[in-house]
Design a protein that fits this description.
The chain has 183 residues and is of the alpha+beta class. The chain is 38% helix and 14% strand. The chain has four helices and five strands; from the N terminus they run H-H-H-E-E-E-H-E-E. Bound molecules: guanosine-5'-monophosphate. The site of guanosine-5'-monophosphate has 13 residues, from strand 2. The active site is at 169 (tele-amp-histidine intermediate).
């Protein structure tokens, strides 16, 4: 798994270097009329590929112990045993900033009581109320963070969905233009 991540990082770095070199050397690609977009940053692209690969690797590792129902890092955050930057809290829900933000605003909204919800696929009719509360809290967070006009709500589920923490959580992302389709 680490070898795959390293290979992807190396491949991305090679591609980034080759692209940089081509852009530097080819006058056809650098006329005044064809400015290279600030979005096209080879190093950032390489970092993005490496980071995506790491997330996939982390998700696969996490999936191996996912359904043991054991405690996760979020239990420590709920218990305030480890610090987090809390954005919103009520009796049922806690929202805090993601430690590895993927957008200027990146907040995780979680149920304080997991109640079997290691992932959304474990939802049962009895969870309907908390699921609604999580989504409503996501909207409150978006308002508090000043991104209510445009934001994204994501729930990663399972290894293929890139889930790495097995305590249901809603990602609230905003503060930049989102792309579609997602990666
Ligand atoms: P998932 O990959 O399961 O959809 O999302 C889990 C998220 O939890 C990731 O975005 C990751 O950055 C975040 N995360 C993992 N550990 C911590 C932590 O200790 N503190 C905070 N604030 N976020 C965490």
């Amino acid at each position: 798994m680490a070898a795959t991540a390293a290979a992807a990082t190396a491949a991305a770095a090679t591609l980034a270097a080759a692209t940089s070199s081509l852009l530097r050397r080819s006058p056809l690609l650098r006329p005044h009329a064809l400015r290279v977009s600030r979005d096209f940053a080879p190093r950032r692209f390489a970092r993005h590929i490496a980071s995506s690969t790491n997330e996939e690797a982390a998700a696969k590792t996490a999936a191996a112990t996912a359904d043991t129902g054991g405690p996760t890092i979020f239990d420590k955050i709920i218990a305030k045993e480890i610090p987090s930057s809390i954005v919103y809290e009520d009796e049922k829900v806690l929202a805090f900033r993601d430690i590895n933000p993927q957008a200027p605003v990146h907040v995780l909204v979680i149920p304080k009581l997991r109640d079997g919800l290691t992932g959304l696929d474990k939802a049962e009719p009895r969870h309907a109320e908390i699921l609604g509360q999580l989504l409503y809290a996501a909207k409150v967070v978006a308002e508090k963070e000043g991104v209510a006009d445009g934001f994204r709500v994501v729930i990663n589920n399972g290894a293929e969905g890139c889930q790495s923490v097995y305590h249901l959580h809603v990602h609230v992302l905003g503060g930049r233009q989102m792309k579609w389709p997602p990666g």
